[in-house]
Design a protein that fits this description.
With 249 residues, the chain is of the alpha/beta class. 37% of the residues lie in helices and 26% in strands. A six-stranded mixed sheet has the order 6-7-8-3-9-10, sandwiched between helices. Helix 3 packs parallel to helix 5 (143-155). The mean pLDDT is 93.
Length: 249
């Protein structure tokens, strides 16, 4: 579904250029659940943001369903409509109700009528246990509830891929579980999300063990190791991954 070839990304700072991605080659198939782990500053979030061109790579190519989305003239908004993204911070519109937040994009982009978007939104809200919050405003929600709404808002676009950038990192520990449960349910799939691919940057190793079809370890802008969860955690090959796991497990 997504193919990445020779991806490079450099940021210019007051202290000079910092090469954050140093030649990433990678691919994900339909329905795969990929979890990316690694130390802070390893390039995980930048890589994720490059996948839907929120960050523009300096070199390399990204293909989505066979189309090069890094090519000049590519309709980036059309690509992003098929890649839902959930951030560390919820980015909800405080002046809109929960239902308003969820239906805004599908209606504005003419993907659904107002009634169709609302019906789909209610179905999704029921799925995450928040149907009773449809008329609430973000300020009236807990952090865990806000993040579940942010997930639903992305799902309302009926994406083929969901990207999660450390979705639990800004939550209180007691709220992490409720968001991870929603993500686990998404991974298992139903009529709406079956076959949907997921790419998740997270520090939640138990989630990676349970949900991932593959786990990636990134360090210093490179994918150092990649394997299915049992082998990744039980039989790491690189010295750097062994060192990383010894500190967090």
């Amino acid at each position: 579904m997504i193919i990445v070839k020779g991806l490079h990304k450099t940021f210019t700072t007051d202290n000079g250029d910092i090469e954050v991605l140093r030649g990433i080659d990678w691919r994900i198939g339909v329905g795969e659940k990929i979890v990316i782990v690694g130390p802070s500053g390893s390039g995980k979030s930048t890589f994720l943001r490059c996948l839907n061109l929120l960050e523009r790579p300096m070199a390399g190519k990204i293909y989505f369903d066979g189309e090069e989305i890094t090519a000049p003239g590519c309709n980036v908004n059309k690509v992003r409509a098929q890649m839902g993204m959930v951030f560390q911070h919820f980015n909800l519109f405080n002046n809109l109700t929960v239902l308003g937040n969820i239906t805004l994009a599908p209606v504005k982009l003419k993907l659904a009528s107002k009634d169709e978007a609302a019906a789909h939104a209610m179905k999704l809200l029921e799925r995450v246990g928040l149907a009773d919050k449809k008329d609430a405003y973000p300020s009236q929600l807990s952090g865990g509830q806000k993040q579940r709404i942010a997930i639903v808002r992305s799902l309302a676009m009926r994406p083929r891929v969901m990207l999660f950038d450390e979705p639990t990192s800004s939550l209180d520990p007691e709220m992490v579980g409720e968001v991870l449960e929603v993500m686990k349910a998404l991974a298992e799939g139903d009529g709406d999300s079956e076959g949907m691919a997921m790419v998740v940057v997270t520090h939640e190793m138990a989630f990676a063990r349970e949900v991932a079809t593959r786990v990636l370890f990134m360090d210093e802008g490179l994918i150092v190791e990649e394997n299915e969860p049992a082998e990744f955690f039980g039989n790491p090959q690189s010295a750097r991954l062994k060192e990383f796991l010894s500190k967090i497990l």
